[in-house]
Amino acid sequence: MPRAVIIDTDGGVDDAAALWWALRSPELDVVAVTVVWGNVAVDTAMASVGRVLAAAGRADIPVARGAAGPVGVAPGLRPATFIHGDDGLGNTTNGLAAPAMTVATEAAPALIGRLCRERPGEVSLLTIGPLSNLGLVLADDPGFAATVGELVVMGGSARAGGNALPAAEANIAHDPMAAALVAEAGWAQPPLLVGLDVTREATLTDGHFALLGEHRSAAAAFLDAPLRFYRQFGSVLTAPDCPCHDLVAAMALADPDLIPDAPVLPMAVDAAGGPAWGATVVDFRAPAVARLRGAEQDRAPGFGPWRIGLGADVARFRSQAAALFGG
Fold this sequence. Notes:
Elements lengths: L2 E7 L3 H12 L3 E8 L6 H14 L6 E4 L15 H4 L17 E2 L4 H11 L4 E6 L3 H9 L10 E4 L15 H4 L2 H9 L7 E3 L1 H4 L3 E2 L1 H7 L5 H17 L7 E2 L1 H10 L9 E6 L10 E3 L3 H8 L10 E5 L5 H11 L3
Parallel strand pairs: 1-2, 1-5, 2-3, 3-4, 5-6, 6-7, 7-12
Antiparallel strand pairs: 8-9, 10-11, 10-12
Helix pairs in contact: 1-2, 1-10, 1-11, 4-5, 5-7
C-alpha cells in the first residue's frame, strides 16, 4: 500500500525532478505539497510547483504556501537564480501564466501539523528545501514530531563539506535555527539525512542527458531544459556528472535500499553564526564511546539521533533516474 507523504519544497529544478518521481512512484501517495522560500522566493516556488503538478496531471493535490524567510537569524546567501533560474525552472517559463492549482486554505505549517496529527504515524514528510516550515510547526507544538511516520531530509553534510557555505549545505544554511530545532526534536523514529555525502555520489551522467533529450516520457520532456540549465553551475563540484540532490532524497523515501550506509548517529546543527554556521555536526565517536562505557553515550545538548546517509547505491539511483526519463 502506498505511503502517504507531504513534500515540502522550495521550487527549484532538482525539486521538480523529485516531485515528478514521487508523483509517479507506486510506493508513495503525495497527499499535499507545502512550499517554502529558498532556491527562489516563496511565490515563485508556488508557481513552479503548480507547473509540475499540472504537467503531471495532478493539479488536484493541495499546495500550501509557507514561510517566506528564515525563522531565525541566517546567513545572507546569494540568490540561487544562477543555478535554478528566476522562475525556479531554469528560465523555461518566463512570460507564461502560472497554471491553475489547488491552493490550500491553510498555511503550510498548519497543514503539515493537522495532517500528521489526524493520522499519527501514517504520514511521512519529505523536505527538499530549507526547514523553515517544520521549524514553525515545532516552535508551536514540539510534540508534533512524535506524530510523523518517517522524516527524510535532503540537507546537510557529514563529511563532504558544504556548497552554499564552506561547511554548510544550502537547505540548512538558509535557516540554521529551524534546522537546529528539527535536529533535536523528538521524532518517532530517527529521521534520514540525505546530504551531500550521497548526493555527490549518486549523480546524473551524460547518458541521462542524452536520454532526457529524446523526450521519451512526460517527465523527460518537462525536465530536459531545466536540468540542462541547472547543470551549467550545479555541477561545479561533481563535473562532468550532475547532482540532482532532491531526486536522491525522493527515491530514498520510496526505496530504502537506495542508501544502504546510514548509521544512526547523534546530529546537531551549528546555528551560532561562526565559521561553521549551518553545518550539520555528526558525532562519529558515539558507537566507540558507547562500547567503552558499556552503555549509550551521553548525548550533548542540541543533538538528536539521525540516520546519516554516508553511501548510496549509485547504480540503483542511475537506473531509476533513467526509468523516470523513459529509459
